[in-house]
Specification:
Elements: H1 2-13, H2 26-45, H3 57-66, H4 72-123
Helix pairs in contact: 1-2, 2-4
């Protein structure tokens, strides 16, 4: 979408076309381009790999060598605590990604609104 918007803008800005953008469209066009760029960057950020907390190798070695003989209830409690820790970490990381995605969508909607305002200003400038 950003590419389409930029090509459309370039058509108006091209000095060879003899067509210019009216002053009333400069602000909404600048805001639209900025917000659409921000939207793209935020959307890319949602795909950034994050480090999720997991069981460390050293902890597994310790469990095998020193805790192997624990009674089943203690072992199940440790396993459950480890799962809770991993789930909490995943939820925290996923919340961050969700906010990035929601922010990207908000920037995109606002950018499109400003682009509509700019188009309106161009069409009604004559």
């Amino acid at each position: 979408m950003l590419t389409t918007a930029l090509f459309g803008i370039a058509t108006f800005v091209n000095p060879k076309s003899g067509v210019g953008i009216p002053a009333s469209a400069h602000l909404p066009l600048t805001l639209a381009m900025s917000l659409l760029l921000a939207s793209s960057l935020l959307a890319i950020a949602t795909n950034m790999p994050l480090f999720y907390e997991s069981v460390k190798t050293e902890d597994l070695r310790l469990a095998v060598t020193e805790l192997w003989g624990d009674n089943p209830n203690d072992a199940m409690q440790r396993v459950a605590a480890t799962h809770v820790k991993e789930i909490a970490s995943a939820r925290d990381r996923n919340k961050w990604k969700a906010w990035m995605l929601v922010s990207a969508m908000g920037c995109e909607m606002a950018g499109l609104a400003f682009l509509g305002w700019a188009v309106y200003a161009v069409v009604h400038s004559t």
